[in-house]
Amino acid sequence: MTDAEPARRYSEPNRAVLIGKESVGKSALAAGLTGAAPAAENVDGATVSNEVYRGGDLEVIDTPGITLEADTETTREALAALEGAETVVLVVPASAIARDLGDLLPLVRGRTGAVIVTHWDRVEAIDETERRRAVADLESDLGVPVVPVDARSLERDRVAADGGPRGGTTGTDGDRSMTPADGRAVRAALAHAAELPGDTAVEIDWDLEPPERVFDRPYLGPVASALVLLLPAVVAVWFANAVAAELDPRVGAALEPAVRWTTSLPGPLAAVLGGDYGLLAMGPFLFVWALPTMLIFALFTGAYAASGLTMRVTTALHPIVRRVGLTGRDLVRVVMGFGCNVPAVTSTRACSDCTRCTTISAVSFGAACSYQFPATLAVFAAVGMPWLVGPYLAVLVATTLLYVRLIAPPEARTAALAVDRRTRLERPRPRAIWREARSSLASFVTTALPVFAAICVVAALFEYVGALERLGAVLEPAMAAFALPAEAALPIVLAAIRKDGIALLTAESAALEALSPVEVLVAVYLAGVLLPCLVTAITVAREVSVRFVAGMLARQAAAAVGFAFAIAWTGRLLF
């Protein structure tokens, strides 16, 4: 904005809504402006939780990325968040300024706002005079402030007492600096926000397409992508075999005096604390196995997302997974489920309407969350068959793909991948990685610990009153159909409430040790996929409907029983 064309000055807004496509730096911009961590809240009646960042007198609403190429719930709700917004901030990347403005300006025509150009550090190779002229022309044409930033390194910096802007902010052409702006410059732009037009005549066509990598090659790309997705599981298995398996007996030995002390307590309390299913017997699993495994997946997931690798990988795998009824975008959500099913289900709002329910079903069936997976590793280690993790993962992936192929609607197998640009790969920043890990750790403490403790208490009391023996007798014919002992019944049932209930199989390690590797594999597989955990089922009901959950549960149980039966008797015939 030049001195000859002063903007209408507004007082600094209390609320600014960020609007932009995916992976343009909205979240980093919001965090940099406020210096705050996000909170998921409903905004202006929206049914989708947006991330709200508050810092001082400024509240920034980070909406989900808009995907115009697909009919997604997140796009509809991001647009709904515009209602009542005091200031709209269009966030566009330097690599696609004209394209993104052309798509987004019609959506915000007539609203008060400003334009933030992110990833400005990536255009340093372009002549500074050309960059300066491009921003000036764009500001003049739009009639609103245009501020270039490097959102990833944006420092929180309050507006100076005189409101004066620093690098990259509005001013005269003669004193404009083309270095990325800081937080004060962006806040100043918000104070100068003006009415947004519906289009722009300025064409900025900088060739900033990231270079091709191995993930972009026709044949090597899918292979490399699959290996990248497999890496967190490989690291988790290594940790389980090298560290957790060594720590588990030592922790158990250290707790042995406490377990002996519980024998002097009243019967029910002794069972809850020191019984085979008690807190002291089963509790160490959560810290020796589940917590480290959860952190491994969280760190990898955060690093993949922060580096841009997630989208590259799923773009490479899209042609393959589309054949079973998923898009590469959907695959991201399924992979997220290996950290926790609940946020994975919630994130399917970004999936196309024709594939969303299929994606949810895939998460429910085959995404072994960070509580289920270490429980599985613990069982294999307890029976002396840690090598079974390889066949287990192969069976899980194969049956999940087959299950999805059977339930996916025909239109899902022709869905396009709604990605209009190649993401740039970069070194992930520790702060972004830790944000993901910190969130998972908080969920572990507030959700996993209480629920797993409740499972232990229920199982211990059932054992105390003899209910487990009676339940085993009732379900023994069903277990026999899979060539499993009656003792496997309870863990399979409780795993439907919480996936780390699979760990209760370790309390029956003596019975399992008598089984063949195929029978152990069937027991763990059936416990893991028979039904989703209760928390996941409730989340799906809230996201879709109770009717959909009922149908999903019936389909999943039928498929799990069929697959387990086939594995059990095929294995018996072959081995």
What does this molecule look like?
This protein has helices at 26-34, 73-80, 97-108, 128-142, 183-191, 220-261, 267-274, 279-307, 309-321, 328-336, 341-346, 356-366, 372-382, 389-407, 430-464, 467-481, 489-494, 509-513, 517-529, 534-543, 546-574, and strands at 15-19, 39-42, 49-55, 58-62, 87-93, 112-118, 146-148, 194-195. With 575 residues, the chain is α/β, with parallel strands linked by helices. Strands 1, 2, 3, 4, 5, 6, 7 and 8 form an 8-stranded mixed β-sheet that branches. α12 (356-366) packs antiparallel against α14 (389-407) and α20 crosses α21.
Describe the structure concisely for a colleague.
A hairpin with a 6-residue loop joins strand 2 and strand 3 (49-55). Strands 1, 2, 3, 4, 5, 6, 7 and 8 form an eight-stranded mixed beta sheet that branches. The protein contains 21 helices and eight strands.
- Terminal Cα span: 77 Å
Radius of gyration: 27 Å
Spatial shape = elongated
Strand content: 5-15%
By secondary-structure content and strand pairing, the structural class works out as alpha/beta
String of helices and strands = EHEEEHEHEHEHEHHHHHHHHHHHHHHHH
Number of strands: 8
The number of distinct helices, counting runs of at least 4 residues, comes to 21
Task: Name the assembly state.
Answer: single chain
Instruction: Note poorly predicted spans.
Output: 1-13, 40-48, 155-175
- Helical residue percent band: 40-55%
Mean pLDDT: 78
The major β-sheet equals: 8 strands, mixed
